[in-house]
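Anyone up for a design puzzle?
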């Protein structure tokens, strides 16, 4: 007690936190102006991505309206900071956004517009920018539902937001160049490529199904119940081959990497039981339903013979 200490403020982190803190006040006020029911439940400003948890269930339209309101306010009005310390009894003279949690002499953080009207007034002891525009831009990145039905708004502000948006644009520009499209047309280009990919996957699935049917037809059935055995050179053919088992027969297949499976269209043979019994011999794991079971085996060469022996 009573010892003197010296310290030095790290201006970089302090300034970034100052921008975050002022942005939190201003964004909370913007939400309140969209709907007074949107009250702040909690905040977090420990990193570049800050959060405000709101009551009142703001929807997507409300969120974008609040963001637009703050953007226009910061760009068109000169909000300046005032930090008077007032007695608790005089708080009723100020339009506080939320009730003060402290008593006695209370420090207020107020952003006042050029017309003399307050934009936001809060009881706060933190650091803030002298002019509200100095925490711009304030950008909402995403939202999510959290405990108690609250809506969490994730935002960035100031220099951190500018750096983030610049990085996102550069990445988008690089991607757009690879797709030979302008940046603003990138969503359309990606949507078109996704449609092409879906069509190509559908074509590939159809081709695999046709090839699987041919492979099954080419494999001779042996024994009773009739059993067809297949060794595949492509693991992607395992599922379509198993679904192509002829009526009244059993089919077993093994592919690269030990992928294996058994399909049964015979009423007295359960595919899952056969697969597990064969894997007990060759090593591996798997399971499934009476008509189809898949797994992996430690002995690709011995799996088909193990199925033959089980049947």
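Challenge accepted. My sequence:
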């Amino acid at each position: 007690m009573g010892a003197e200490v010296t310290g030095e403020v790290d201006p970089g982190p302090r300034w970034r936190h100052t921008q975050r803190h002022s942005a939190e006040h201003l964004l909370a006020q913007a939400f309140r102006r969209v709907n007074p029911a949107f009250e702040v439940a909690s905040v977090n400003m420990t990193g570049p991505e800050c959060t405000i948890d709101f009551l009142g269930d703001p929807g997507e339209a409300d969120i974008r309206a609040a963001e637009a309101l703050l953007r226009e306010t910061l760009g068109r009005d000169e909000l300046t900071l005032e930090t008077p310390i007032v007695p608790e009894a005089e708080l009723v003279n100020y339009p506080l956004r939320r009730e003060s949690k402290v008593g006695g002499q209370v420090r207020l953080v107020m952003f006042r517009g050029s017309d003399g009207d307050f934009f936001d007034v809060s009881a706060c002891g933190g650091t803030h920018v002298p002019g509200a525009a100095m925490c711009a831009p304030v950008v909402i990145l995403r939202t999510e539902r959290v405990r108690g039905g609250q809506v969490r708004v994730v935002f960035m502000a100031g220099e951190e937001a500018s750096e983030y948006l610049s990085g996102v644009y550069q990445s988008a520009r690089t991607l757009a160049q690879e797709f030979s499209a302008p940046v603003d047309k990138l969503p359309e280009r990606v949507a078109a490529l996704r449609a092409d990919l879906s069509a190509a996957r559908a074509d590939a699935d159809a081709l695999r199904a046709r090839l699987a049917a041919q492979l099954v037809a080419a494999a001779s059935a042996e024994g009773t119940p009739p059993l067809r055995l297949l060794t595949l050179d492509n693991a992607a053919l395992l599922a379509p081959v198993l679904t192509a088992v002829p009526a009244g027969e059993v089919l077993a297949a093994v592919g690269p990497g030990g992928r294996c499976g058994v399909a049964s269209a015979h009423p007295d043979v359960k595919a899952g039981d056969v697969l597990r019994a064969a894997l007990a011999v060759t090593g591996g794991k798997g399971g499934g339903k009476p008509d189809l079971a898949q797994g992996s085996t430690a002995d690709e060469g011995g799996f088909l013979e193990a199925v033959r022996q089980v049947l």
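A detail worth pointing out: The CA atoms of residues 248 and 265 lie 5 Å apart.
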